[in-house]
Amino acid sequence: MNRIYGADAVIERVEDLASVILAGRHETVRSDCLTGALPLMRWQMYRGSDAYRRVTILRDPWARLVSQINRLAILGPDGAGQDGSVARSLAAEVAAADFTSRPGLERFRRRLQPVEGGLDNLQTRMLLTGTMSAMVKPLTLRDVDKSLSNLAEFALVGFCEDQGSLQRGLLRLTEQTAALASLFESTGKAVALSPRNDLAREVLEPLFHYDQVLYTRAKAMIAARQS
Predict the structure, then answer these.
(1) Which ranges in the chain belong to alpha helices (H)?
(2) Separation CA 214–CA 142 (nearest Å)
(3) Phi first, then psi: what are they for 115, rounded to 5°?
(4) Who wins on pLDDT, 16 or 154?
(5) Which end of the chain is more exposed for a tag (fewer CB within 10 A), N or C?
(6) pLDDT given for residue 187 in this prediction
(7) What distance in Å separates the CA atoms of residue 160 and residue 96, rounded to the nearest whole number?
(8) Please, which residues bridge with residue 34 across strands?
(9) What is the pLDDT of residues 24-62, one digit of tens each?
(10) Average pLDDT over residues 137-157
(11) What average pLDDT does the chain have?
């Protein structure tokens, strides 16, 4: 986005700024472009949010989960703690987990608490609207329907595995020209979990089950739009 709008016109990590604005520790801001990881329902709480065209990117759910776990493993509890108590707690669970055995994987899955910003079907939850309980409640296929319906209202939906198309879509949307950035997609260094760990994929499947349904349906929806 910096290539399109210029660095001075982009505010990054808006989720951090949003929390201090709500707490009254920062004045409200105006910007051409805001980027970050913010649940849709939280974004809609802000006055003026409907003036922005929404863009999002989805990622293969298993690759996304592996990447998040490896990032937590690299940061450790102290490093992850800079992102809050939830991240610290998750990093501690990752550090204590055995990802090589079925009992270890099942124990890890059982110990995960339903928290905002957790590991459980995060992409589906981020696209829900209503109340913040959606970030922690048990999900159903009706929630996937709602997330997909909300996704259909976005100005642009991209996929991490096809970043070239996403960048070209952004240029069309903004009617700008810019050189495409280098393309990169990785699950991160496999310090804790490899994407080729089939046992882990089987045992941890409930953590990305609904995300996989959403991802598959979203790809079909976007393909139908482009046909």
Answers:
(1) 2-5, 14-22, 40-43, 61-80, 85-96, 102-111, 122-126, 141-151, 163-174, 198-203, 209-226
(2) 11
(3) -135, 155
(4) 154
(5) C
(6) 58
(7) 29
(8) 11
(9) 787 777 788 888 888 999 888 877 888 899 999 999 999
(10) 97
(11) 90
What domain count does the chain have?
A: 1
Q: Are 214 and 128 in contact (CB under 8 A)?
A: no
Residues 206 and 122: beta-carbon distance below 8 Å: no
> Is 13 part of a structural domain of the chain?
no
Q: Tokens at residue 46, please?
A: 């802000």
Q: Please tell me the predicted confidence (pLDDT) of residue 188.
A: 60
Tokens of 132: 């913040």
In a domain, 220, yes or no: yes
Task: Print the domain residue range for 50.
Answer: 37-226
CA separation for the pair 214, 145 (Å, rounded)? 8
Residue 6 lies in a domain: no
- Residue 17 lies inside a defined structural domain of this protein: no
Q: What is the pLDDT of residues 162-195, one digit of tens each?
A: 988 888 888 888 888 777 776 665 656 778 999 9
Q: How many residues does the chain have?
A: 227
pLDDT for 21 equals 73
The dihedral built from the CA positions of residue 94, 97, 102 and 105, taken in this order, carries a sign that is negative
What DSSP element (H or E) covers 57? strand 55-58
| Long-range pairs of 149-157 with CB within 8 A, sequence gap ≥ 24 | 150/40, 151/56, 151/127, 151/214, 151/218, 151/221, 152/221, 153/54, 154/54, 154/55, 154/56, 155/53, 155/54, 155/55, 156/53, 156/55, 156/56, 157/55, 157/56, 157/57, 157/58, 157/218, 157/221, 157/222
